[in-house]
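Batch manifest, entry 17 of 40.
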Amino acid sequence: MKLPNWFTGSSSPVTPGKHCKMDFSGMKRGDKIPRKAKIGLAKVQEIACTPLETLIQGVIVNIGLFVLFCLALGLFSKLNWGTAFASAMLLALYFYYLCLEDVSIGSVGIPTIFEKRNTPWEKVLTEGKHWKFYPFSDIAIVNMKEQTKSLEAFSVNAANSGAGKKKEQDKTATPADTTPDKKDIVRLRVEVSIQFFVWDPWRCLSIENAEEALVNIVKDSMITVSQSYDDTELMQNKDLLIRAAQKAADKESDHLGICVKKILIKKIEPWNPKILDAHERIGIETLRAIGDGIVTSNNINRIKNYSADLGIPVAEAIKLHGNAQGLMPRQEIMVTEVGDAPVNSFIGAAAVLRSEQAKPAQTHEEKKPEGGE
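Output type: structure tokens
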């Protein structure tokens, strides 16, 4: 069996050991896996040792122990068919109950002698039952399956929407001036899941609770980068946090021996539900304002067309358009000024046109100079 070039990251294919039965079928061509991780997985396959190989070693050792038992019994004149059978049964029980270790599916075993691991990249044990020389040797098991871990919801601090914008626009502002105050901080609740796998079992064993260390790296990177954005930006563009976390995880991949394939933000929202309601109201008001502006613009164009096509004053065109659209009562409505108070699109259009009509008159007014003749 030869691993493809895209998997190993090398120019030539890697041929694992002939007895290799490890399965990494979960790795797909489209997966973004660092080169070192691909090479590490290929090396694991090269040095893999099957259960049959270790069982043969165990049988040979047990036969040697049986011979030693028989020699010892012969020295004390206790060797007979009964003692030989009892010795064989004891060694069989010893072999079955104490010397067999199960390496679960998708995991590898690292042999240890007196709790000391073998040399890195020397030998690993594939899934299945393996023999160990108890109590002198043992097997440390490392799960190398692709795993998905859902993190408990945690908080990130983001700047409030619009906080510090005016200060940032001021070129004379110092960094301290553009830092949002405590009242401008919004606490966001983030739910994250991580897809990862171990590619270097020796480095993973060197760190106590490597998975927990990976979780802390992802959390810390998201908490740090969130302070550079406001809550609206983070909720609308989750990739801002994902890219920062992925970069931090890739940087620590060599140290942990773990590769992060994908980081997914399942949910990001303010802890305070009132903030989310405020965002929804702002969004609705923004859409309404855009719609009103479009309708007002259409009304202005139609009134101008009435005035130009029929050769009537703008005031008469406003009345005509209003009557045609059913937007105007029978009595005349005079709109002289529109302040901040909300008005409908027709009245707004009328106000705009009348203000435009009044501007030329104000422009041509001539003031008498003081002290003139």
